[in-house]
């Protein structure tokens, strides 16, 4: 009778394909429910066997799939830093993060003498960042225009095939039951999906030793850009404040009221207002540094 482990989800019953593995791995019925501490210990055993099992065998697939499921918590942990991207994208974030986890599992070796968690997180985060780099908009546009871009792209392709030419704005509008103004707005917004490189050469003279790029002639560093980025980061943080805290911030920085005026309005002392503002600003600064 095989000896059972103390963990309720583990069993030392050997697998059917034991010929490929020098050491029988424990059967784990619910790998995703294994506590992180237990998962770290078991991972060492599974990685050790993964290196000697023949790729493509049932035993190999079991070991690899179990490692993936046991470590999915790492994907969810890494995905938390991207939670403000929008709930609609979280499912995609988890999917691409899982791809990073799989890459880490396939490339990890125990001889590295490093915890798998430390090895895997950069792979997971890197895959998520690559997803945003390759699939998100270069500039921010309203959600309805993002959706309209996809609809317009599909409609243009369908009508181009049917008409054997590019459809006009009027034809797109008629097909989608939109106004021409709405179609034009969508087409213009679609230009914000990707951004051209400032290093792209323009009007290059084949006989000239110098190449002129867009960066040479287009604009300069905008001193207000950091302010825009700060305000964009600050907006969701203000939403997290309670009603009274938002009112104090609005009175001080929106209406430019003095601390004494704010205290009179709220029925509290100026010193109390000063302490509240100091605490609020410290909290917002800390949260902004975390979000950036």
UniProtKB/TrEMBL annotation:
InterPro entries: RNA_pol_sigma-70_dom, RNA_pol_sigma-B/F/G, RNA_pol_sigma70, RNA_pol_sigma70_r2, RNA_pol_sigma70_r3, RNA_pol_sigma70_r4, RNA_pol_sigma_r2, RNA_pol_sigma_r3/r4-like. Residues 1-13 have a biased composition (Polar residues). Residues 1-30 are annotated as: Disordered. GO terms for molecular function: DNA binding; sigma factor activity. It comes from the Bacteria. Residues 92-105 form the RNA polymerase sigma-70 domain. Pfam families: Sigma70_r2, Sigma70_r3, Sigma70_r4. Keywords: DNA-binding, Sigma factor, Transcription, Transcription regulation. CDD domains: Sigma70_r4 (cd06171). The keyword Transcription regulation applies. GO terms for biological process: DNA-templated transcription initiation. Coiled coil: none annotated. PANTHER family: RNA POLYMERASE SIGMA-E FACTOR, SIGMA FACTOR F FLAGELLAR. This is RNA polymerase sigma factor.
């Amino acid at each position: 009778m095989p000896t059972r482990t103390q963990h309720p989800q583990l069993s030392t019953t050997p697998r059917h394909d034991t010929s490929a593995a020098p050491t029988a791995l424990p059967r784990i019925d619910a790998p995703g429910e294994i506590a992180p501490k237990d998962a770290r210990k078991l991972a060492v055993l599974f990685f050790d066997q993964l290196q000697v099992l023949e790729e493509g065998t049932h035993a190999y697939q079991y070991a690899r799939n179990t490692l993936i499921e046991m470590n999915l918590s790492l994907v969810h942990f890494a995905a938390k830093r991207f939670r403000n991207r929008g709930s609609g994208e979280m499912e995609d974030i988890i999917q691409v993060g899982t791809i990073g986890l799989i890459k880490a599992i396939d490339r990890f070796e125990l001889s590295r003498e490093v915890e798998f968690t430390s090895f895997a997180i950069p792979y997971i985060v890197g895959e998520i960042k690559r997803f945003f780099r390759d699939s998100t908009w270069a500039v921010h546009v309203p959600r309805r225009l993002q959706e309209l871009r996809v609809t317009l792209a599909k409609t243009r392709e369908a009508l181009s095939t049917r008409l054997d030419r590019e459809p006009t704005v009027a034809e797109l509008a008629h097909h989608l039951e939109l106004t021409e103004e709405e179609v034009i707005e969508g087409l213009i917004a679609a230009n914000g999906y990707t951004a051209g490189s400032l290093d792209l050469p323009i009007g290059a003279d084949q006989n000239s030793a110098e190449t002129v790029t867009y960066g040479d002639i287009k604009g300069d560093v905008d001193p207000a850009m950091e302010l825009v980025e700060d305000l964009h980061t600050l907006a969701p943080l203000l939403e997290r404040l309670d009603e009274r805290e938002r009112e104090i911030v609005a009175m001080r920085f929106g209406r430019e009221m003095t601390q004494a005026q704010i205290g009179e309005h709220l029925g509290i002392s100026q010193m109390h207002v000063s302490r509240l503002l100091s605490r609020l600003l410290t909290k917002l600064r800390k949260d902004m540094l975390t979000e950036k």
